[in-house]
């Protein structure tokens, strides 16, 4: 009997290759024999050495297939055939990649997208089998930002989404068929070219603004994130080391033991250990400065004449 295919998508560049390798090792560890897992890695500026290391992870797993695809190859085909072109500067590093997955991979009607800074702690097929109930995407509320008053104000007043409904796009189930039927990517390109909204999290903000009221909210166990106040859940299904909560940088990060357990099974363990050792006080200060810069940018966006909320509530545009 032919096994049901579970398509899972990642994007990566050379800097994140070690963490992608760890994510893949954890996903494969929990893969069921009842499914065929097609793990698509769309890569940008990946060295041949890293490419080979990642491809070897599926050796010995007959129902797991790691498929490597050059990012520029897939995106150029989309740009060439769209009436509204992507601005050239958005191709590299292509932060809007996940929005184009339904166009890049027309052979699928549905797919799971995962960021590279995650650990899978359950069978990803369970997430894939989520009933979207007519919604465009399934996702979890972004719990890593809920405690920040300024960011919550940004979600409410700039993105135009109630902060307790603002979702994180690092773990998504996407209805590919519905995206294509409704020409979601074309609409995104139209908005991008016409307004080029100033954003804090570019693809995530667009997805939240455009998918409003058409989101299936998942249990947060599918996208558990470390937080400053340290309230880790007992049995996370996916851990997402979002923002600056990276166990390869900081000691005491929530769920760090899970990361190091799977990092040992990646082909980049020595490189990850080296990154941890080299993360200095100067690096910590750099993270703090970047966070302050992000908050300063939020303040500027809140004052802007053009925001998602203002444009959509004015009636000039529709969300989807």
Please give a structural write-up:
It is a single chain. By secondary structure, this protein is α/β, with parallel strands linked by helices. Helix content is 39%, strand content 17%. It has 13 helices and nine strands. The protein has helices at 17-29, 48-55, 71-81, 101-104, 124-128, 149-159, 176-181, 184-195, 202-210, 256-263, 269-278, 281-302, 308-314; strands spanning 4-13, 35-44, 64-70, 111-114, 118-120, 137-141, 167-174, 215-217, 238-240. The strands form two sheets. It has a seven-stranded mixed sheet, sandwiched between helices. Strands 5-9 form a two-stranded antiparallel ribbon. α2 (48-55) links the parallel β2 and β3. α6 (149-159) runs parallel beside α12 (281-302). Residues 79-93 have low confidence and may be disordered.
Order of helices and strands: EHEHEHHEEHEHEHHHEEHHHH
Put simply, the count of helices is: 13
| Uncertain residue ranges | 79-93
Provide the spatial order of strands within the biggest beta sheet: 3-2-1-4-7-6-8
Write down the Rg.
19 Å
Shape, please? globular
Estimated structural class: alpha/beta
Main β-sheet: number of strands, strand sense, barrel status?
7 strands, mixed
The count of β-strands is 9
């Amino acid at each position: 009997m032919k096994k049901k295919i579970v398509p899972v998508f990642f994007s990566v560049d050379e800097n994140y290759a070690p963490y992608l390798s760890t994510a893949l090792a954890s996903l494969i560890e929990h893969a069921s024999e009842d499914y065929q897992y097609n793990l698509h890695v769309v890569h940008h500026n990946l060295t041949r050495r890293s490419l080979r290391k990642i491809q070897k992870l599926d050796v010995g797993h007959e129902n797991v297939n790691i498929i490597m695809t050059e990012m520029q190859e897939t995106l150029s085909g989309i740009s060439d055939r769209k009436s509204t072109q992507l601005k050239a500067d958005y191709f590299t590093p292509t932060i809007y990649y996940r929005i184009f997955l339904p166009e890049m991979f027309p052979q699928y009607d549905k797919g799971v997208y995962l960021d590279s800074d995650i650990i899978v702690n359950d069978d990803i097929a369970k997430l894939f089998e989520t009933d979207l109930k007519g919604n465009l995407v399934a996702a979890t509320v972004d719990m890593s930002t809920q405690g920040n008053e300024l960011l919550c104000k940004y979600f409410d007043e700039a993105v135009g989404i109630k902060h307790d409904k603002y979702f994180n796009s690092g773990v998504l189930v996407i209805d590919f068929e519905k995206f294509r039927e409704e020409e979601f990517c074309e609409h995104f390109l139209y908005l991008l070219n016409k307004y080029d909204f100033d954003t804090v999290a570019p693809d995530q903000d667009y997805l939240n603004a455009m998918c409003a009221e058409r989101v299936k909210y998942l249990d947060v166990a599918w996208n558990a994130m470390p937080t400053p106040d340290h309230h880790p859940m007992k049995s996370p299904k996916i851990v997402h080391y979002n923002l600056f909560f990276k166990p390869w940088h900081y000691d005491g990060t929530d769920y760090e033991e899970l990361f190091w357990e799977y990092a040992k099974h990646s082909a980049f363990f020595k490189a990850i250990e080296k990154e941890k050792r080299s993360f200095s006080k100067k690096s910590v200060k750099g993270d703090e400065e970047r966070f302050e810069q992000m908050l300063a940018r939020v303040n500027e966006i809140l004052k802007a004449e053009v925001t998602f909320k203002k444009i959509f509530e004015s009636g000039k545009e529709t969300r989807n």
